[in-house]
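Quick one, tokens below. Sequence please?
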């Protein structure tokens, strides 16, 4: 759903100035189909989450150049969900594997990896490799802003939920120009109020989407490396990357390849039941905060359901608004007050995965 910005033109040769404002997917497909007559690229101007398993099962290979950790984890979870195992031997059916070639850049740094779901390390196995997201204290955003970023976060975190500019159940979409424009205008008003310079549309978009300025040379190297790995995988001309390459040209040029090991307790691919250890006196809000802040889980907006007395019970969901309002009171209740017992199962849904994760609750003693 991303659209072409003027800043894209210095590093993306598929786009021209006349294309600014158009869909990236549609413009790129149009350019390639015109330039290479025997090639047929079908654009999809929508979210990757809009397609189901049947759509992704139709690919021999997925190349991933996404701009967020959440999107990477989602496509990783989708490809893992396609795997099938032999009922008698328990062995993985190799014909159900859809390889993933993933590339990413951050300024002068970049990486490429080749993932065979269920065989080697997946995206979630290496969550600790991703740079931490920058968060600003809420008290600073609300009362003593000093930076233009504080003004943007004020609009995004505090004003959007309060004013609901596009409807009750509409969340912020960083790829929607109308959403970014609304946040930008509100941030400018906030900046003017406190005499803070530097609030621009590009800054607003960067804060909302956690964008780090791109370097054309880094992008070119990583794109070339991804293309090479795709060629290796589809032609079997030689062994693909095994399985992680890092690149850094901030001080000279440095590359290094190593084999990233699978995490035996990986949330996505280990098939090992996950445990949550908390006190019976812990509140539901503490449980949700743990799922978000833990370096192991790094969830974004978890929703929790369980089964009590044979009946399903929704403990908390952020969407839709009606369910959020109905379950909000549970956040202040302890796990014991909610009727949860040691060993019970919690089903957690989050935007980082297309499938829910089942946890076993274990009560700790003081």
């Amino acid at each position: 759903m991303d659209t072409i910005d003027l800043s894209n033109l210095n590093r993306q040769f598929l786009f021209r100035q006349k294309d600014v404002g158009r869909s990236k997917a549609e413009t790129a497909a149009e350019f390639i189909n015109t330039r290479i007559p025997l090639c047929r690229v079908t654009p999809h101007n929508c979210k990757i989450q809009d397609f189901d398993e049947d759509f992704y099962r139709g690919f021999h290979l997925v190349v991933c150049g996404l701009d967020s950790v959440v999107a990477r984890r989602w496509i990783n979870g989708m490809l893992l969900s396609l795997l099938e195992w032999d009922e008698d031997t328990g062995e993985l059916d190799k014909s159900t594997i859809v390889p993933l070639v993933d590339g990413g850049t951050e300024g002068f740094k970049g990486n490429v990896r080749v993932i065979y779901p269920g065989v080697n390390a997946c995206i979630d196995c290496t969550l600790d490799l991703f740079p931490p997201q920058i968060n600003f204290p809420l008290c600073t955003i609300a009362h003593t802003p000093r930076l233009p970023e504080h003004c943007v976060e004020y609009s995004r975190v505090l004003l959007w939920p309060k004013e609901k500019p596009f409807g009750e159940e509409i969340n912020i979409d960083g790829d929607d120009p109308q959403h970014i424009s609304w946040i930008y205008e509100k941030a400018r008003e906030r900046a003017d109020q406190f005499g803070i310079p530097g609030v621009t549309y590009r800054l607003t978009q960067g804060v909302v989407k956690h964008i780090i300025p791109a370097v054309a040379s880094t992008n070119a190297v990583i794109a070339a490396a991804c293309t090479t790995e795709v060629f290796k995988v589809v032609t079997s001309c030689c062994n693909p990357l095994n399985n992680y390459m890092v690149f850094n040209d901030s001080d000279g040029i440095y590359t290094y390849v190593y084999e990233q090991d699978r995490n035996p307790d990986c949330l996505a691919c280990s098939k090992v039941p996950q445990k949550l250890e908390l006190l019976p006196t812990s509140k539901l809000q503490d449980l949700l905060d743990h799922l978000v802040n833990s370096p192991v889980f790094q969830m974004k907006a978890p929703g929790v359901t369980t089964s009590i007395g044979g009946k399903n019970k929704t403990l908390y969901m952020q969407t839709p608004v009606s369910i959020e309002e109905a379950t909000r009171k549970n956040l202040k209740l302890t796990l014991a007050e909610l009727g949860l017992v040691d060993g019970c199962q919690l089903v957690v849904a989050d935007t980082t995965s297309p499938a829910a994760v089942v946890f076993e609750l274990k009560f700790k003693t003081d």
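The mean pLDDT is 88. The longest strand covers residues 100-106.
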